[in-house]
Design brief:
- This protein is an alpha/beta fold.
- It has eight helices and ten strands.
- Strands 1-10-9-6-2-3-5 form a seven-stranded parallel beta sheet. A three-stranded antiparallel beta sheet has the order 4-8-7.
- Strand 2, helix 2 and strand 3 form a beta-alpha-beta unit.
- Helix 1 crosses helix 2 and helix 2 packs parallel to helix 3.
- It is globular, with a radius of gyration of 17 Å.
- The structure holds 2-phosphoglycolic acid.
- 2-phosphoglycolic acid (PGA) binds next to loops.
């Protein structure tokens, strides 16, 4: 797949409708894979945006007997320098917001390590790519978009062919995280992220964007010539991508 100026298909909907739609798609994938005796491989994000999806999947387990036994997950990214128990680590976010609530086996949940030794980071990233490949690749990637156009922690300047790697966090990303960390000085400067090419390798990609804070970056994502200045523009041209966004984010 080459960089494409194709439009990004858009579904205008409320955050609650988006959560139900994405959860329905994920549930259908899980059930279809189970019927075939296979795992469903999900790529998952953190942040505020996906919380409704996690709540809806928890509800479907409770009310609709949705079974996660054949699910493997790979998270997009993690801050470097944080132990797994740190309140702001994505490992902890995922456990509290989703994994523990549905009883997902820790052996089925992959997240880059935030406390890997510096000398081991490159090997750890290569191993993450290998685990994704060994799982059969990503079936379904759920993404948010940062106000600077990042997907995962693929910050402005990230290449279309980038893979899982260590990155320096952009000032907008760190500023947006500052409140949760109790001050900018506590926000890590570096992270590990799945690459743009890793994400684009997913068979299906769904992007969520809600609220007026995302309006400017969404307009650029939809209209700019695709390139590293807005990594989310690389999503255009994926064979099965859809943006689910509310009116405030779409400026409608
Ligand atoms: P948010 O983050 O869901 O908290 O807005 C999105 C992102 O940075 O990818």
């Amino acid at each position: 797949m080459t960089t494409s100026t194709a439009p990004l298909p858009i579904q205008a909907c409320s955050p609650a409708e988006a959560a139900r739609e994405v959860a329905r798609e994920i549930a259908a994938l899980i059930r279809e894979r189970r019927a075939a005796g296979r795992m469903a491989v999900l790529c998952l994000p953190t942040g505020r945006t996906p919380l409704g999806v996690y709540d809806e999947l928890v509800r479907m387990q409770r009310d609709e007997a949705l079974d996660f036994a054949n699910v493997t997950t790979f998270n997009l990214d993690e801050f470097l320098g944080l132990p797994p128990e740190h309140p702001q680590s994505f490992r902890r976010y995922m456990r509290e917001r989703f994994f523990a609530r549905i009883g997902l086996e820790p052996t089925h949940t992959w997240i880059p390590s935030g406390d890997v030794a510096p000398a081991q980071i490159a090997a750890h990233c290569a191993e993450y790519e290998r685990e994704i490949a060994d799982a059969g690749g990503l079936d379904y990637a759920l993404l948010g978009i940062g106000r600077n156009g990042h997907i995962g922690f693929n910050e402005p300047g990230s290449a279309r062919d980038s893979r899982t790697r260590e990155v320096r966090l952009h000032e907008v990303t760190r500023a947006d995280a500052a409140r949760a960390f109790g001050g900018l000085e506590f926000v890590p400067e570096r992270a590990i992220t799945m690459g743009v090419a890793t994400i684009l390798g997913a068979r299906r990609v769904r992007v969520l964007a809600f609220g007026a804070d995302k309006r400017d970056i969404l307009r650029r994502t939809l209209e700019d010539t695709p390139g590293p200045q807005v990594p989310a523009t690389f999503l255009r041209g994926h064979p099965d991508v859809r943006l689910l966004a509310d009116g405030a984010a779409l400026g409608r």
